[in-house]
């Protein structure tokens, strides 16, 4: 969640309103979630825009690691739209040296790795997510699944203890 004191309500952050940032980061997974259709995000481009705004706050020195987070967001969001019945939730969370990306979708089918074949289009996204992430988890639940990727990225979050 965007800290209350980070920006003024309605203020634009990297071209994004704080309201759109809030929509992206607080929608929890659940049995009643439908694909996002509330004037919020509908495309991977919108998800990347929200992620850029999030990274401005959470990982301003992210550099190429921030680019990795953007690629993971793009792949997970696009896969949910194309192969899993739509996006039902999207969350970003900064941790010590990581950004967690979670995308909920309407399908209970787990992502499948396709054989890598440079002569055929597609099939590289799931491999890319796994290569860029320290950990990737798929949790199936009654309303579909949540795919969570933990991406190494320098953040302002300090370790506890």
TrEMBL record:
Keyword Transmembrane: no
Keyword Kinase on entry: yes
TM region(s), chain numbering: none
InterPro entries for this protein: Anti-sigma-factor_SerPK (IPR050267), HATPase_C_sf (IPR036890), HATPase_dom (IPR003594)
Keywords: Kinase, Serine/threonine-protein kinase, Transferase
Domain of life: Bacteria
Coiled coil: none
Domain Histidine kinase/HSP90-like ATPase: 47-150
PANTHER family: ANTI-SIGMA-F FACTOR RSBW, ANTI-SIGMA-F FACTOR RSBW-RELATED
Protein name as annotated: Histidine kinase/HSP90-like ATPase domain-containing protein
Organism: Streptomyces coeruleofuscus
């Amino acid at each position: 969640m965007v800290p209350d004191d980070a920006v003024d309500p309605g203020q634009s952050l990297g071209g994004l309103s704080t309201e759109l940032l809030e929509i992206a980061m607080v929608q929890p997974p659940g049995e009643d979630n439908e694909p996002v259709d509330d004037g919020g995000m509908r495309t991977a481009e919108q998800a990347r825009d929200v992620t850029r705004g999030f990274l401005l706050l959470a990982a301003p020195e992210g550099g190429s690691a921030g680019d990795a987070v953007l690629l993971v967001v793009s792949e997970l969001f696009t896969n949910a739209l194309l192969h899993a019945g739509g996006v039902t939730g999207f969350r970003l969370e900064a941790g010590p040296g990581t950004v967690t990306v979670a995308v909920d979708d309407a399908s209970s089918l787990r992502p499948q790795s396709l054989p890598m074949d440079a002569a055929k289009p597609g099939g590289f996204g799931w491999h890319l997510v796994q290569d860029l992430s320290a950990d990737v988890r798929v949790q199936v639940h009654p309303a579909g699944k949540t795919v969570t990727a933990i991406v190494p990225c320098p953040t302002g979050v300090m370790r506890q203890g």
